[in-house]
Amino acid sequence: MQTKEKQHDRFIIFNEDPDLEPIKVKLPKPPPKEKIIGYDLPNNEQKFKRPFIPNKLFELNKRKDISDKEKGSILKDDHKYYEEEIEFINQEWDRRTNGVWYYINGKPMYIPGGYYFYLTSWYLERGYPDYRDRDRKFFIFSEFCENDSDCFGFIYPKHRREGATTKAACWNYEYVSRRKRVRGGIQSKTETDGQMVFSKHIVSGWRKLPFWFRPIFEGSTNPQAKLSFSAPPVKVTRSNMGIDEMIDLESSIDFMSSTEGAYDGARLERYHGDEVGKCIGVNVYKRHLVVRQCLSELDKIIGKAIYTSTAGEMTKGGGAEFKKLIESSNYHDRDGNNRTTSGLYVLYIPATEGFIIDEFGNSLKDKSLKYLLNERQKALEDEDYEKLNESTRQFPIRLRDCFRNASDTDNFNMKIIQEQLDKFQFGNNEITIGDFIWEGGNVGGRVIFEPRVNGKFKVSYLFKNPQESNRFYIEDGVKYPTNDKKFIAGGDTFKFKTTQGGKKSDGGGAVFMKRDYTVDKDTDPIEEWKTHRFVCTYLHRPHTKDEYCEDMLLMSIYYGCRMCPEINVPAIMDHFERRGYTGYLHYVLDKKAGKYKKNPGYNTGTEIREAIYRAYQQFVEKHGHRLVHDDLLTQLQEIEDDMGDFDLFVAGGMCLIAAEDEQNF
Predict the structure, then answer these.
(1) Rg (CA), the chain
(2) pLDDT tens figures, 575-594
(3) What sign does the dihedral 447-449-452-458 (CA atoms) show?
(4) Which helix or strand (DSSP H or E) is residue 370 part of?
(5) Cα gap 449→452, rounded to integer Å
């Protein structure tokens, strides 16, 4: 009897990543405890084990002198002698079809049918797979997508040598080999690679299956381009102890070239897009649009796809389209037909899962994280940025790591940025999260900061003396902030349309504390300065622009500073004017014309973009080690040439170039 039972999981949550929205999937209810495999064992012996094949069936299976069909006939003709063996075959078919429950170290665990088939029957290069909780997640998610009538399948960016190609091949075969008149397809980054997936991962696994899971087939035992099933596998039913009627399956699995239209016009019930992040010269997003038509009949989805790619080996060309495919597959963002833009979902499992495991197959996440971070830290210390980027892509800790490339180090000092981010890997005690609100709900009165777990603002400086906040003076009936010599705010309004990267825009906001020469003298070491730093950041997408603009107003009122907005979208300007806070807008002095510009803030044209990048470069080099706002550090790490997806970066840039006009850095 087990020593201690743990509660089974009722749900499993996928995509717990800052770059994704989680997906909560309900798991089946477990059977009675005594029906769960391993119930009679102590916890330390409750591990997944392949079932023992009865001796007579084992001997029959390994015979080379007779065909699979003849083996089935032997069972039929002498079913009393093979009663135990027939019962075993029925059991394995039931588990393959319906799944099974195991105790793993005291905890009831649901093993989907596809995963059970993979673990017990799909022979790999060096033997059968070991149980891993990461692989279990893969097959649970594939089952979830299978049961969703509005889903075409999923995209699976993964770490190096994770086994995704083998799992997807098994998934492809498992479905096709037990259904009539269905077709499974394969494409990879080249036609040669597609053939390798077919031969190494489909044919090789099929040839080593036990005869009761091998359909009668046509042609050679080593097919080069197509595996055709002419009759179903032997399946003995307990009711009559006989063999199901032998009928032609007329099903098959093949591969095609990597071109976008290779499967155009075909009908597919299964499709595996292998290494889609490496395709050069092929637009995998456009290719998916063709494949999607193959997986549907008018408005009905009739097939499923899995897209896999080794994140660590993505090239810049292929990775861009793969990223677009991911960004168009947000489970929570659907059209009027209840489908994502691509029709797919995303499954992302960080490299910390399945990398280092315990004896039960469970991931040792903390140990894995420490190992991966140590490798990155060594690359940083050696200033080997090529190795750092490659290691980050090959073993991504979060989704964004998959798309890291060499240009990430071109703009700013990556060593400084990465060192700062590493400090906050397990939390950031330098900031407080919360919201700026009207005190007592008195709109137009005082603004206070209220700490909240799910707040929209991250602050690293709050006034110890409340009287120093909310400071303003009135001139000609207009309110002007009094702390404008100490602080400057910046804002980048979100757009309702999606950005160039394919995701919805956020609203960005920042407050920068200008250098106080009475506090930080020229003789003081820069690393000990208390001023000349970011003190507040905001990266959030509220329900309306008015809500965002009100947040920017509250932030400016609290710090008593002017707001320098990105004026391409004049929402902040309009809101401040409408609310009677025109004096809180920062107007730029046109030095050539000798007068202030008509509108506040900056228009992010080429000249201003260059000024922002230049200001950040100087700031990171001199003051990056004092930057504690990890959200801004992350955007500095990711930014390339297009600022459209980096709203906080733009807001902070507004602060820097506005402050640069008044102070020498």
Answers:
(1) 30
(2) 999 999 999 999 988 777 77
(3) positive
(4) helix 365-381
(5) 9
